[in-house]
Amino acid sequence: MVCGIAFSGIYFYIAIPITTMKKIIFSLLFIPFASKAGLNSSHPNSTILVEARSGEWPISLEKTINKNGTSYSLQFRDEQVLTNVVLDTLPFRDLTQLKYFEKALTVLKTGNNGDVAKFKDYSIKRAESRKEGKWYILRYQWGLTNFQQAEADTLISTIRKL
């Protein structure tokens, strides 16, 4: 089982053991599968569904599609941090969880001042004033944001369309 190269004119021959040739052929058969796995992107595909509020204090609802399925998230600027811009993300595992958020906003819309919808990871409180109308205070972990009824209506209508 000796490898060697022989030159004869402009042609050359390579003497390779049969086991090495089998390895080369097997490798050539394996390459298409390896390259297919490398071409599949593991990066999630995110889409902004609605930007309820833009500007200095943004609130947006995003849809993320990855290999595990579709998830949703509400991104907002934390209003407790005034010196820096800190964006928080309230994740929703699936559409069902997002629908619970929508139902909470809908119930609070017809509720009373001070009503609170509590969930495992976050809470929404309704606050009302004669001058400014209905406000909602969203608390998630250490983050906090508030938004008005018009922004809540935008979120509600977007979620209902899903």
List the helices and strands and how they pair.
Layout: E1 4-8, E2 11-15, H1 18-39, E3 45-53, E4 59-66, E5 69-77, E6 87-92, H2 95-109, E7 116-118, E8 122-129, E9 133-140, E10 143-148, H3 149-161
Antiparallel strand pairs: 1-2, 3-4, 4-5, 5-6, 7-8, 8-9, 9-10
Helix pairs in contact: 2-3
How confident overall, as mean pLDDT? Answer: 82
Rg computed from alpha carbons, rounded to a whole number of angstroms? 29 Å
Query: Terminal Cα separation, in Å?
Result: 67 Å
Report the β-strand fraction as a percent range. 35-45%
What is the CATH domain class of the largest domain?
A: Alpha Beta
- Total number of strands: 10
Note poorly predicted spans: none
Q: What's the helix count?
A: 3
State the helical fraction: 25-40%
Under the CATH scheme, the architecture of the largest domain is 2-Layer Sandwich
CATH topology (fold) name of the largest domain:
Secreted effector protein pipB2 fold
Total domain units:
2
Spatial strand order of the main sheet: 3-4-5-6
What form results from the Cα inertia axes? elongated
Class inferred from helices and paired strands: alpha+beta
Order of helix and strand elements from N to C terminus = EEHEEEEHEEEEH
For the largest beta-sheet, the strand count, sense and barrel status come to: 4 strands, antiparallel
Describe the structure.
This protein is of the alpha+beta class. It has helices at residues 18-39, 95-109, 149-161; strands at 4-8, 11-15, 45-53, 59-66, 69-77, 87-92, 116-118, 122-129, 133-140, 143-148. The protein contains 3 helices and 10 strands. The strands form 3 sheets. It has a 4-stranded antiparallel β-sheet. Strands 7-8-9-10 form a 4-stranded antiparallel β-sheet. Strands 1-2 form a two-stranded antiparallel sheet. The protein is elongated and about 90 Å long.
